[in-house]
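quick one before i forget lol
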Amino acid sequence: MVRTLELIESRVSARTRWHFVVLRDGDTSAVGECSDAGDTDAVIRRLTALTPSLEGRDLLADRTSVVDELTRAVESLPQQEKFAAATVLGGLEQSLVDFAAQADGEPVWKWLGGVSPDRVPLYANINRMPGGRSPADVAEMAARAVAAGFTSVKCAPFDVREPGQDLADTGVARLRAIRTAIGEDVGLKVDFHERLTAEDVHRVLPAMEELGVAWLEDAFAVQHVEDLRRLRAATTLPLAGGELMFHLDEARTAVAEHLVDVLMPDVKHAGGIERTLSIARAATGTAISPHNPSGPVATAASAHLLAACPNATVLEHQFGEVPWRPELVDGAENITDGHLHVSDRPGLGVRLRTDHPSCRVLWTANI
């Protein structure tokens, strides 16, 4: 019987391509997501390089040792190659967990030792919305998210410059428009994406406090502890970050000194579901909200993870980018009133529709 590994691309928008790792073994199909790994050719090269580690292996009995071997391989790479390799590992590991949980006849949340999540609370990330980025544009999309039942919205107001305008002032204007549109009772999360200088971060703090933002995300990377210490001393607003981390060590000082209130590991970039869960469980006393500006497979993986994570809070959901998103997993992404209904079917509970018009096979290998 032929066992294969595939890389599937779903073309979403001018900005977004979702990438999925599909493991096929007989009648079983398991899937993981490795979107946002960077250059697609680098992703294919990494998958090609790891294929010998999978060939002929028992991917049920040897799953842990296979993942450990691949993790060590990521750690040995030059720094400039690690991010893409870690994200590819994340997608592969998700598919191996999906495969193992299906074999055991259990949903991943139960397979991980969690309790039935029923519904997972979400917040709406509008960063990849189509159209313009004027204050009116982003305010309209935020209002759409609230109308759809979300009680918290996140944007990245400092991502896009306007000609002739100060970036910090432009971002604040966008946030003021959103707050006016959604009212005072809806949470407003702000993702800085490390786009502002330290001086500008501190300059906009009074506006952030006036607007009552729910958290400041990635004003500085979690490794930049001196910047975080100064920010912590300057504001009582919650601080969030850690979306690109692969090891807890990268955020250990920030967690130990309570320089972040919310840690945001990503099931893709952190190397998979079990690695992300180990990071979350080790960060005792710190809230966990998985980073997830991703497609429906990583969203399913993150939702199952939350059910096994005692310090988990809320999950990010990419809102408003394309209307056909649930079609890609045969409607398994069921969201109502700002909550994701988590499947109790074996595995992740999603079946990727590789025949969807947005999809194409980029790479395949027999393993």
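fyi The mean pLDDT is 97.
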